[in-house]
Design brief:
alpha+beta; 5-stranded mixed β-sheet; 4-stranded antiparallel β-sheet; 32% helix; Ribonuclease PH; Ribosomal_Su5_D2-typ_SF; transferase; ExoRNase_PH_dom2
């Protein structure tokens, strides 16, 4: 039934290659099917002015897509002089999702910026960015702890994200672009490794959905993020 021939509860193949770039304190290339995102984490000895002097750390994110990440070339946002609304929304989502899994007191007064650059898009780029972004964050924090700059691990639980939706009348896990573009209901679920919810984005796109269907999608999301958390831990081991 699915264009990819996957089972309803089957994710695309996922791989996480750590240490993908030379200079960043943490980096990985995450592939979820044909969606490929480069995630890097950069440490900075400063925080935004609104928390300066508070002793709290900060995690933020930036997101972008290369011009040929999609089937037709997109104009670079830098060429237009400003970021698009979608870009701003996604990078704010990534930042607040990752902060939810951080003990900002333990992190100390420093900032970690997660850069997520989509090299190739086939649906679920924000979910891949969050999942890979946590791996880059984990690697950067590992360096802080190894150097003795952080005494208590500030990362409380892995954070990952997966898309689920109603496609051809059936609840499915991890939508690729052909499914995402035709799904009657589309959702993104951000969860911790222990199964706690951070954020749910759900919308009906051409059809409505029931509470029972919502519960089915939640079950699929819990399965997917549990598998992603295991992959994240293995990648950082």
């Amino acid at each position: 039934m699915r264009p990819s021939k996957r089972d309803l509860n089957e994710m695309r193949a996922v791989s996480i290659e750590t240490g993908f770039t030379k200079h960043a304190e943490g980096s990985c290339l995450i592939k979820m099917g044909d969606t490929h995102v480069l995630c890097t984490a950069s440490l900075e000895p400063r925080v935004p002015p609104f928390i300066k002097g508070s002793g709290l750390g900060w995690v933020t994110a930036e997101y972008g897509m290369l011009p040929r990440a999609t089937n037709t070339r997109m104009r670079r946002e830098a060429a237009s002089g400003k970021q698009g609304g979608r870009t701003v929304e996604i990078q704010r989502l990534i930042g607040r999702a990752l902060r939810a899994g951080v003990d900002r007191v333990a992190l100390g007064e420093r900032q970690i910026t997660i850069d997520c650059d989509v090299l190739q898009a086939d649906g679920g780029t924000r979910c891949a960015a969050i999942t890979g972004g946590w791996v880059a964050l984990r690697l950067a924090v590992n360096k802080l702890m190894k150097a003795g700059d952080v005494k208590i691990d500030p990362l409380m639980d892995p954070v990952s994200a997966i898309s689920c939706g109603i496609y051809a009348g059936q609840p499915v896990l991890d939508l690729d672009y052909p499914e995402d573009s035709e799904a009657g209901v589309d959702g993104n679920f951000i969860m911790t490794g222990s199964g706690k919810l951070i954020e749910v984005q759900m919308s009906a796109e051409g059809s409505i959905f029931s509470r029972d269907q919502m519960n089915q999608l939640m079950d699929l999301a819990e399965k997917g993020t549990s598998e992603l958390a295991a992959l994240q831990k293995a990648a950082c081991a």
